[in-house]
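Forum > Structural Biology > Help requests

Title: Can anyone predict the 3D structure of Molybdopterin molybdenumtransferase?

Hi all, first post here. I have the sequence for Molybdopterin molybdenumtransferase but no way to get a structure on my laptop. I'd be grateful if someone could post the structure tokens.
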Amino acid sequence: MTDPITWADARETAWAAGYAAKPAPAELPFAEAAGSALAAPLTAVSDLPAFPTSAVDGWAVAGTGPWRIGGEVLAGHVPEPLASGAAVKIATGAQVPEGTDGLIRLEHSTVEDGYVSGPTDREWREAGEEARHGEELMPAGTPVTPPVIGLAAAAGHLTLPAHGRPRARVVVFGDELLTSGVSGKGRIRDALGPMVPHLLVGADVQASIGPVADTLEAHVAALREALADADVVCTTGGTMVGPVDHLHAALAEIGAEYVLNTVAVRPGFPMLLARTADGKFIAGLPGNPQSAVIAVVTVVAPLLAGLRGLPLPPLRTVELAEDVPGRGSFTHLALVDPAGRRLAHHGSAMLRGLAGAAGFAVIPPDDAAAAGTVVDLATVPGVSS
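Reply #1:
Sure, ran it for you. Structure tokens for Molybdopterin molybdenumtransferase below:
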């Protein structure tokens, strides 16, 4: 074991390793680009809107009224120019006819003997009102969110320049684990195998492997199998140096080098991140469930963000409703609910508290936090609060 690095440094280190290894950008369909970052600025392929567009259902009129009714304009059609004194019914989103001086809202109009009257206004969007052809809409590095995808589609794009999803795979270590039934007779039900894949937000998650037998040979074989078709492999358990902890020896066997090895955080201390000679990553998560989640928050989420060209995942804040103790020279990640109250069942082997948590209140090393203090909040990927 090496001296652990700080929790803050671990996040930065994992993110920087991912960002340096991010794949070359490609033009990706929207579904594949979602959750990545723009690798180049997003520009408008045409004026936006491309033509004057009615903002209301009503009447397009020219000249002075009352106006003689002569047809209608629907969305998707190119209208004839409008002569003075004429009116056409127009739908929201339809192209405003050339020569139009104003629009009358349908609900404000009066129709009598083939004529329409009512108050007029310029209730349409001018061509290029939102953007001009070639104008930059979003800079490179912008996260590809659903609104960004909508903007790209409206601006004429079918793809986006972005970094593809890394392929990820989970390897579960442990002879003692059951994949069905209930715990008993010295064996326990595996919680990490079903949970961890859903924490790997932004990755293309492949089928999990395991439980893997507690032998060095089985660990090496499982790692090689996972690395054959994954860019990021998350292992569970075996991160210490006990009699059945073979991960460190297996990493040496396959020639992987540590990016970081142990983090000064409680819970979650014995986590690691390693890299193979061909640039793939192995994140070693502790076997205790809550510690494993903290390892995902600390190492895996920043790594995946970097691999997609995204910034380091931001921390939120929470005002504590009660005192939270420190953990000496280690960062303390304390489970709290949305109101800043500490949760029961917060031991590193427990998930009951985590299931109702807003996230982890971050208590810095050599410190404690009193009720009323506003502290950083580390949230769990895939969990909204």
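The two ends are 36 Å apart (CA to CA). Helices lie at 7-20, 30-33, 146-154, 192-199, 216-227, 247-253, 289-307, 352-355.
Shout if anything looks off.
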